[in-house]
Specification:
With 685 residues, the chain is α+β, with helices and mostly antiparallel strands. Helices cover 31% and strands 23% of the residues. The chain has 21 helices and 29 strands. The chain is elongated, with a radius of gyration of 37 Å. The N and C termini lie far apart (136 Å).
Length: 685
């Protein structure tokens, strides 16, 4: 066979090479075509995520509590900077941290992230400089209130929620991120991209809370003052609308430790005597007692199951109504023996104790309520006095709301409404009754008992001059870690209904470990409640129905005016909100145990403030001749409130006058007929 020539070999080589080249091209274009196209796109185009602005959080009146603002993060790429000195001067003119640039240059860094975030207008002058890189960043801006921050929570540096509503409602607030595709040249520099390459982000939904910002500020301020003045370890204030379940304020304060959550829902406590009204309600509901039923209270001391139960207000016997009014431990235990352990347990279980309420706040505590099979021998008595049971402040307020609204346990609401970015309502909270825990008649009876607690019981310091306040105080011993109950360590609390005859608020004030001579809930928590209520009445928007308040004004306040007494006698009574000076002075005196009365005549022209107080109920009209004269009691060593009650009990009408000096007229011991007017005065402050 003839050997191939050199030319034939070369031709064959080129043919094989061409076949291989075509085969490779076919593989690249046909078999691997999609892979190479994708690689090319990755080299010439890149996609970047666009963060969606988180939704706003508003208070119940529409005021902004939390919002997102677009800020700018500034960075320098030093290899791209042609004139370092010029750039540093430009940074100084824009009020950026040029010192950080100097420090980075000294360390020969190639990329510098300047600290802080800046608005677009602040850095507009340096945005076109070579080597300056701007990155848009969404910053979450919160209100100045620490209490609001504990409710709404916070985000970390990457925009991830850490706690509070930001975490619980993240899927609603987060929104949908957008996406932008950018082209770049062979040097990697970005090119202008068509508008169609950008998918705009969708902002998150707006959440409106039930919190009233004005009332929240009032509660936080007064709680801070109370904790500081009483040297307490902390405290909580919760305000709820008892007819809707809306949480109007949620304030918490802790001294010496940082709390990220709101302790009103995360820290249970033993509520003490504030549980006694629910025991009374259970007795009435099960037909085991009537308000007038009387039990022996053993002069305030009773031994039961190896323990001694004592009362602050000692009496031989008390009715059920008086047991609540004077907060008798012995009395409530005596009455409570008429209930079975199962009935006691179910009473508290049905009120929502021992289970989470389901508010959208992380780490909500369920509290402690053990079943009867887990009780000790002393639990049956302890639980009636508010021990061996733990509830959160929010749970206790929710239970008291059932007394205020006629017997229904309502689901508490913290979120009032959720709206999309275009204003469409996605969710609106509606009042929802979980169950009926007592009849309307029983609820009204308990309300009357709570009115008596404030009028003449253990919580008179919560009373207001113009409106009725109902409520119950509690003073519970606190435990120390691994030491059990310790002497001198108490939780002082008060739960109030305002107004007492037609409640619009349920207010709880709790103070932990107050220091000083006074530690009882009626002495220190009740006055804080009164101050909160006064501030709410004075505020323009504190979630109060003013028309309803007008109908709830005390009928016993017959006359109240500001100005000389002569003018008061000739002018018509003025509206309640115009009587602030006189009534405020009267109430402050009533809560000051050192304020004593001394007899002295008062010139009419020196009495700038006069308040008439008529005995309630007003004695029936009778011919003056038919009434036997009696001496006017000596009230010089009594406080204003005690003096007024003493004179009312004696059958006299009372006028309280604030002037430059002290006096009573007629003087103590003077004979006067019942129904006569006695003028009682105290010095100006």
């Amino acid at each position: 066979m003839k050997a191939p020539t050199r030319v034939a070999v070369i031709h064959a080589f080129f043919v094989l090479f061409a076949i291989a080249l075509v085969a490779r091209a076919a593989k690249v274009q046909v078999v691997e075509g999609k892979q190479w196209v994708a690689r090319g796109k990755r080299q010439h185009f890149f996609a970047s995520a666009l963060s969606a602005p988180r939704g706003q959080i508003l208070d119940a009146s529409g005021n902004t509590l939390v919002e997102s603002r677009e800020m700018t993060r500034v960075a320098l790429a030093l290899p791209e900077v042609h004139d370092t000195a010029f750039v540093i001067k430009a940074l100084r003119r824009a009020r950026l941290d040029a010192a950080a640039v100097h420090a980075a240059i000294d360390r020969r860094r190639r990329w510098i992230d300047l600290p802080g975030l800046y608005s677009a207008s602040d850095v507009a002058s340096i945005s076109k400089l070579n080597g300056v890189h701007m990155t848009p960043v969404l910053q979450r801006v919160y209100g100045n209130s620490d209490g609001i921050k504990r409710i709404v929570g916070s985000l970390d540096g990457r925009g991830n929620p850490l706690d509070g509503l930001e975490l619980a409602l993240d899927s609603i607030l987060r929104g949908d991120s957008g996406r932008v595709s950018l082209a770049r040249d062979n040097n990697g520099r970005a090119l202008d991209s068509p508008d169609g390459w950008t998918e705009q982000p969708k902002p998150g939904s707006t959440v409106m809370l039930t919190i009233n910002n004005t009332l929240q500020d009032i509660c936080e301020r007064e709680l801070s003052i109370a904790v500081d003045s009483l040297k307490a370890d902390g405290g909580d204030i919760v305000v709820m609308n008892p007819h809707t379940g809306e949480i109007l304020a949620l304030a918490s304060n802790r001294v010496g430790r940082t709390t990220f959550g709101n302790t009103a829902v995360t820290e249970p406590f033993e509520p003490g005597s504030t549980l006694k009204p629910f025991v009374a309600a259970s007795l009435l509901e099960h037909k085991r007692a009537r308000p007038s039923d009387i039990v022996s209270t053993h002069n305030g001391k009773r031994e039961l199951d190896g323990r001694i139960i004592t009362d602050m207000h000692k009496a031989a016997q008390l009715s059920l109504a008086d047991v609540i009014r004077f907060s008798s431990n012995v009395g409530i235990v005596e009455f409570g023996q008429r209930l079975t352990p199962r009935q006691k347990y179910e009473t508290f279980r049905d009120l929502g104790f021992g289970m989470a309420l389901g508010v959208p706040l992380p780490a909500e505590a369920a509290g402690t309520l053990r079943e009867p099979k887990q009780w000790s021998r002393q639990t049956a008595a302890s639980i009636l006095m508010g021990y061996e049971i733990a509830v959160t402040p929010l749970q206790l307020v929710t239970a008291y709301a059932a007394i205020a609204n006629g017997g229904e346990l309502l689901e508490p609401h913290l979120v009032k409404e959720v709206r999309s970015v275009n204003g469409k309502v996605l969710y609106r909270a509606e009042p929802r009754a979980v169950r009926r825990v007592m009849s309307g008649e029983v609820a009204r009876t308990i309300q009357q008992m709570l009115l008596a607690v404030v009028q003449e019981g253990t919580a008179t310091k919560a009373d207001l001059a113009t409106f009725e306040v109902a409520g119950k105080s509690g003073t519970a011993r606190r435990t120390s870690q691994n030491a059990g109950y310790t002497a001198g360590n108490y939780t002082a609390s008060f739960v109030g209904l305002f107004p007492g005859n037609d409640p619009q608020y349920v207010v709880l004030v709790k103070l932990d470990s107050p220091k000083g001579a006074h530690y009882a809930g009626g002495d220190i928590a009740a006055p804080v409640t009164q101050i909160v209520l006064r501030a709410a009445l004075a505020a323009r928007d504190a979630a109060l129905d003013r028309e309803g308040l007008a109908a709830s004004e005390k009928s016993t306040l017959a006359e109240s005016a500001v100005g000389p007494s002569k003018a008061a006698s000739t002018s018509a009574p003025r509206p309640a909100r115009e009587r602030g000076d006189a009534t405020d002075r009267l109430d402050r005196a009533a809560y000051d145990p050192s304020d004593n009365m001394t007899p002295r005549a008062i010139p009419e022209e020196t009495a700038p403030y006069i308040v008439d107080l008529l005995a309630s109920p007003r004695p029936a009209a009778a011919p003056r001749a038919a009434l036997t004269a009696r001496p006017i009691p000596d009230v010089r060593r009594l406080s204003v409130r005690e003096a007024v009650r003493t004179l009312h009990s004696a059958g006299f009408r009372v006028r309280v006058v604030t002037a430059a000096s002290s006096a009573t007229f007629p003087a103590a011991g003077t004979m006067a007929t019942p129904g006569s007017l006695v003028q009682l005065t105290r010095p100006l402050e």
